Give the backbone structure.
Amino acid sequence: MYPIELRKITKSFKNASGNGELLILDSIDLCPQVGKSTAIIGKSGTGKSTLLQIAGGLDAPTSGSVFCNGTDLGTLSDSKKSLIRNRNMGFVFQNNMLLEDFTALENVMIPAMIAGKGKKECRDRALELLEKLGLTDRLDHLPGQLSGGERQRVAICRALMNSPEIIFADEPTGSLDEENAREVENMLFDIVSSEKKTLLLVTHNIDFANRCDMVYRLSNRKLTLEKG
Ligand SMILES: Nc1ncnc2c1ncn2[C@@H]1O[C@H](COP(=O)(O)OP(=O)(O)O)[C@@H](O)[C@H]1O
Ligand SMILES: [Mg+2]
């Protein structure tokens, strides 16, 4: 069993007029290896984010199945899917999606609070992660008071809060300068190797992708293996 397995995933979107369909993904199979990093590269608009959203159960495929440890996400209610996302998956997005009215510490604590853990346990775990990612002196900062790299590191802490087995990252360094981008890359790879996490990453940065164990290219609605 695998944390995520995509089988024959097809996705099409309706045109704005509603009378035509645009095929974005055509019968895609993908099974990221446990303890490894897998990158998906491809031109803008090819469907990388769509594929990642489907893999993470945030969007439904038009046909095909996504299995999480053998369970077909398509057979689950929205609340069961949310539960699996909260327990088994961590998400890091390009624009970090932190809650602006909450401090760095609070943002990181939220997934564990949702999971019903006690406040002290949440706080201790969040402090441990924030320390690991070098943010101990930024605990009470609001996202607006942090640099882009710091916000992204907070987002990584939040993604790791419930110790998910798989981490999805969509252009996690897309809005960062080179130095911050490198730092965020290093942190993600460090977590994958030290904690045996599975990383599924979308990036248009070839150097970042090439640091991953496996690299797939998405083009013409299909995935092809380029490395690994
Ligand atoms: N909700 C939607 N409705 C219609 N078309 C969409 C929707 N989301 C994405 N698309 C289209 O699907 C294609 C792939 O989008 P996306 O997955 O964001 O690409 P990428 O991440 O590779 O840049 C684009 O042409 C986009 O316009
Ligand atoms: Mg995208």
Residues 178-195 form the longest helix (18 residues). Residues 48-49 surround magnesium ion (ligand 2) (CB under 6 Å).
